[in-house]
Specification:
Layout lengths: L1 H22 L18 H17 L11 E7 L4 H14 L16 E6 L10 H10 L32 H7 L3 E9 L3 H4 L13 H6 L10 H7 L8 E5 L25 H11 L4 E4 L2 H8 L5 E5 L19 H12 L6 E7 L1 H7 L3 H21 L5 E7 L2 E2 L1 E3 L12 E5 L5 E3 L1 E6 L28 E4 L5 E2 L3 E6 L8 E4 L3 H9 L15 H10 L8 H17 L6 H11 L5 H9 L7 H18 L20
Parallel strand pairs: 1-7, 1-8, 2-17, 3-4, 3-7, 4-6, 5-6, 13-14
Antiparallel strand pairs: 2-16, 8-16, 9-15, 10-13, 11-12
Length: 633
């Protein structure tokens, strides 16, 4: 009896432990009573980023020749990983495929990493503190722009000290003689683009009236629109394309489409922008519709300001395509504008309305806006060389859209999962944890949303668990996709504030370390690179052989040797199946014929033979010359 009672007690205790462990209630509550004071400084985050670069260089990342003349940063506002996954499926299904196997343009980039998005004072970021991180390289407080975490939100006075004001990678590019610009589907004064030029204690201070309403003097704490037109670095941006005319116009006036101005200082900042450019004796154009954009493309000015809506641009699925340009068209114009500077440029491009659609639980609009970003990235990769242009695609924060259920392959990504809940009601493959799309339960059961009259309209709100006026951001890490010089630097998991420092390293701008400073890399890493480097048929034999011999030359300059025989073995092992007869012939040749120079010459001739056989023109790159020179790694 005693043994049986003990066994029952043990079983109860085990169940209690299991139940307790399942949901980890002991983890509730704050784990730290304060944020380290060091995190309130610029130096903490800059040192953190530079130390990470030093570690990457130690392992050989960021080594080799070349730098990024151009840097384009694409930002999908709120583009969480489930958003990318679902958008990929939607793109495929729009093209009569099952969808899951589809690849977005930036998913083809050779490097992907993850960035941690938290703010100094918040687990889940907003678009302002995150913009400060990925554009200025310093983490800040939620709601603040271009200032350190020593500035509490809405504290005008605290933001006026120069030591807390931050400059962005756009300013670093301008200081190097390059050009800079911004493109967005939101207001150009909205949090994400404003991170490239503004210093503000509150992201909402887009016009002077909002500074006044917060109880501060707009002459002391300048509003964001004013900073874009009159302050460094915004007034030097060669191209500014987006929405938000209302923030630039005074009360009592209306723009060309009837939107009322919101400024109470009687200033017309659009006119002041034009006056500034005229006084500087530079060519400029202000445009506000697609027709004017098309016209400007035929005769590009030195400076362009395009404001295509009173507030944000319309959602792509709802926009009038005859009057409002797409994100892809805006991106193409911006790259054309900036590419005229031989030194290069920095361009920030935001697909900002992904975020807005998620906040309203409008899943189809969110995914379609993601596909608009995908198209804009594709256009940029088409226009810019991978050799001298770094393209980075990422998000500022996540959202709480869930991709769930056990749907069969190829099932409509915007429809129900095919499963039912415990009450027999269908549920959507894509739903939200919280937001305005909550439906009241009847008799303890959810509503059948598929029976709603607006079901599957573009503004239909997906199912929600927790009722809120606006869906929240998510605290997930977000993906970073990179293509171009030193793209490997963007692999791994790191602070979001590392991003501009790594971009600046590759572009050789800013205050930190630069790829072109001649840092060396361990010889064993170069040996590893030689044996990992693969033949790419699209690039051609000459590129492959040139790279192998370049790495061999680097070793020689470091006093290290790798024999020609090993290099020959590496090259032969890398050749595709179509070269099997060539390999047999080579191995049968006498030893005096098996030299590296002979192999290079014969392979180039063999490539030409293949091309002639396929009636393809010979590539000019086949005139192959390798020079053994010192390359700074």
């Amino acid at each position: 009896m005693w043994a049986l009672g003990t066994a029952k007690l043990f079983a109860v205790l085990v169940c209690m432990v299991c139940a307790n462990d399942r949901y980890h209630p002991e983890q509730r509550g704050p784990r730290a009573s304060f944020v380290p004071q060091s995190e309130l400084t610029r130096q903490y985050w800059e040192n953190d980023a530079q130390e990470a670069i030093r570690k990457l260089k130690h392992f050989g990342y960021g080594s080799g020749v070349g730098k990024a003349r151009n840097v384009v940063m694409f930002l999908g506002d709120g583009m969480s990983n489930p958003t990318v996954n679902a958008a990929r499926a939607l793109l495929g299904q729009r093209n009569n495929k099952t969808g899951e196997e589809t690849q977005l343009s930036f998913e083809a980039f050779p490097t992907v990493g993850m960035s941690k998005t938290y703010c100094v004072n918040a687990q889940v970021a907003d678009s302002a503190c995150s913009a400060t991180a990925y554009l200025c390289g310093v983490k800040a407080n939620s709601g603040t722009l271009g200032v350190t975490a020593a500035v509490p939100r809405r504290d005008c006075q605290a933001s006026l000290t120069s030591s807390v004001q931050l400059d962005s990678i756009a300013a670093w590019a301008l200081a190097d003689g390059r050009d800079a610009g911004i493109v967005t589907t939101t207001r150009v004064t909205h949090a994400s683009p404003a991170g490239s030029y503004a210093n503000a204690a509150d992201r909402n201070w887009e016009n002077n009236a909002q500074v006044n309403q917060a109880g501060h003097d707009p002459e002391l704490c300048r509003d964001i629109a004013y900073q874009l037109v009159h302050s460094e670095p915004g007034k030097h941006f060669k191209v500014i394309l987006g929405g938000g005319r209302r923030e630039f116009l005074p009360l009592g006036t209306r723009d060309d489409e009837g939107t009322a101005g919101r400024r109470t200082d009687n200033r017309n900042l659009i006119q002041e922008w034009q006056t500034d450019k005229a006084n500087r004796n530079v060519s400029f154009k202000y445009i506000w519709n697609k027709e004017q954009l098309n016209s400007a493309n035929s005769d590009l000015p030195e400076y362009m300001l395009g404001l295509f809506e009173g507030s944000h641009l319309q959602y792509n699925l709802e926009a009038n395509k005859t009057t409002e340009p797409t994100l892809t068209e805006l991106t193409e114009t911006a790259i054309k504008m900036l590419s005229r500077n031989e030194k290069g440029f920095f361009l920030f491009v935001e697909g900002g309305r992904i975020d807005h659609a998620h906040h309203d639980n409008m899943v189809e609009l969110a995914l379609d806006e993601t596909l608009e970003l995908h198209s804009a990235v594709a256009k940029a990769t088409e226009m810019l060389s991978e050799e001298d242009s770094l393209i980075v695609v990422t998000a500022d924060h996540a959202h709480v859209m869930a991709y769930n259920g056990y749907s069969s392959r190829g099932r409509d990504i915007l429809g129900p999962s095919g499963n039912v809940d415990s009450h027999g009601k269908p549920f959507m493959t894509l739903s939200y944890i919280n937001g305005p799309g909550f439906r009241s339960h009847e008799n303890g059961a959810r509503a059948d949303v598929t029976q709603e009259p607006t079901f599957r309209s573009v503004r239909w709100q997906a199912h929600v668990d927790v009722p809120l006026g606006s869906e929240t951001h998510g605290g997930d890490d977000v993906a970073v996709y990179a293509r171009g010089p030193h793209h490997q630097l963007f692999s791994g998991v790191y602070e979001q504030s590392h991003l501009p420092h790594r971009m600046a390293y590759v572009a050789c701008i800013g205050r930190g370390q630069h790829a072109c400073n001649g840092a060396t890399v361990p010889a064993p890493y170069i040996v590893t690179r030689i044996f990992q480097y693969k033949y790419d048929e699209a690039a051609g034999m000459s590129v492959f052989l040139s790279k192998i011999q370049e790495l061999q030359c680097q070793l020689k300059q470091m006093g290290e040797e790798i024999s020609d025989k090993l290099i020959i073995t590496k090259i032969l092992m890398s050749l595709p199946e179509e070269y099997k007869h060539f390999i047999s012939a080579w191995e049968s040749a006498s030893d005096d014929k098996q030299t590296l120079d002979n192999l290079v010459a014969r392979l180039l001739n063999e490539e030409l033979r293949f091309k002639d056989k396929n009636e393809e023109p010979a590539s000019s790159s086949s005139a192959f010359t390798v020079k053994c020179f010192y390359t700074s790694l």
